[in-house]
Amino acid sequence: MTDATLQFRVVPASDIPLAYAIEIAVYPEGEPATQETITMRQNAAPELMFGCYDTANNPAGTLVAYIVSTKAQGNRLTHASMYANNPAGNAVCIHSVCTAASHQRRGIATKTLRAYLAHVRQLGREEEERTGKKAAVDRVLLIAHRELMGLYAGVGFREVGLSDVVHGPDPWYEMEYLLEW
């Protein structure tokens, strides 16, 4: 695998089983989303499920990392926002950033996050062109455990504080990435 063999694109519904397999393999017990929840998120906001595909051994690419999100209204990622999508929302809420264990520690998560943020900005530009108005989305939100906050800070997220979301035994910290239009 090299940077030349990586492709970043929207994840189709047909790849949800692959995404789920990555999710259950990398998240600690009690934290992975169910396949049904991933499917709901992808169905609700297909443009916000984005993946990294390795084409080294398969011209069509093999999913090696993905991000799944929905939209919400407000400036905080809430428990309710994890299970709903508000198409008119101002916040993209990232629910999972997963990299296959076989591809971890190679910068894939960072590259996927950077490509994803560029994708979200492109969606905003397209919305502005289509509507003639400023894009509705003005931020990207996520929650992370303390040990992963450096990854997100490295691509431009800033810490907001301890999250109200309880999911699994460890605390979550909210982070945000503000979009400039």
TrEMBL record:
SUPFAM superfamilies for this protein: Acyl-CoA N-acyltransferases (Nat) (SSF55729)
Keywords of the record: Acyltransferase, Transferase
Protein's UniProt keywords contain Coiled coil: no
Single GO MF descriptor: N-acetyltransferase activity
Gene3D superfamilies: 3.40.630.30
All copies of domain N-acetyltransferase, residue ranges: 6-180
Name this polypeptide is given: N-acetyltransferase domain-containing protein
Family annotation (CDD domains): NAT_SF
InterPro entries: Acyl_CoA_acyltransferase, GNAT_dom, SNAT-like
